[in-house]
Write a structure and sequence with these properties.
By secondary structure, the protein is mostly helical. It has helices at about 40, 65-90, 115-135, 140-170; strands spanning about 1-5, 5-10. It has four helices and two strands.
């Protein structure tokens, strides 16, 4: 590799400048910066002939590596418990709702035997979500990302449960009372 104004140049440099040029470039026969001159900045000691003379620094374990490992283990066990809950849950065929509100929102579920499995499942999911939110990452990005993925998974299950509950209520809601239109225009009643 040859250097032209201190910048590496891919091709060979001419031995003398062209005769017709007005600006004559400066030609260096030796490169300005070599690995002998700037060894600590231009050469990677982890490779090459200096590898034995300068071994790479040892990998330092953080002080809280045991806490990080236990956090990963706890998140893994919570995910296993979530998969077990999802596999064992059977959505009930019938749900008992509270009285419908006037604003048209989906009413709450009653504490009945028809709703007991759904209420228990929802409570278990919320407990798992609370446990996941209490896990501290201690600044470790891997723990934070795994925990956030698990939280998103539990929140998706809760949203799916809410959607199914709304679908059941919509299919089995009481018929709406139809209001008869006025026979005369409203201004004639004044």
């Amino acid at each position: 590799m040859e250097y032209y104004y201190g910048i590496p140049h891919p091709g060979p440099l001419p031995t003398k400048p062209p005769a017709t040029s007005w600006v004559y470039p400066i030609y260096h026969t030796q490169p300005l910066y070599t690995t002998d001159y700037w060894p600590s900045y231009t050469y990677n000691y982890a490779r090459g002939p200096y590898a034995q003379a300068f071994p790479s620094p040892p990998v330092r374990l953080s002080k809280n590596s045991a806490e990080i490992t236990s956090a990963h283990n706890l998140i893994g066990s919570i995910r296993n418990e979530l998969q077990e809950l999802v596999q064992n849950f059977q959505f009930p065929d019938r749900l008992d709702f509270d009285k419908p509100s006037s604003d048209g929102q989906v009413p709450k579920l009653l504490n009945s035997r028809h709703n007991s499995s759904l209420n228990d499942y929802r409570a278990s999911l919320e407990d798992l979500l609370d446990t996941l939110k209490r896990i501290r990452s201690r600044g470790d990005l891997s723990v934070r990302s795994v925990r956030d993925d698990a939280i998103k998974e539990v929140q998706d299950r809760l949203a799916e449960l809410k959607r199914k509950k709304a679908e059941v209520w919509w299919q089995h809601r009481p018929p709406a009372v139809l209001v008869q239109p006025l026979r005369r225009p409203m201004w004639s009643n004044w």
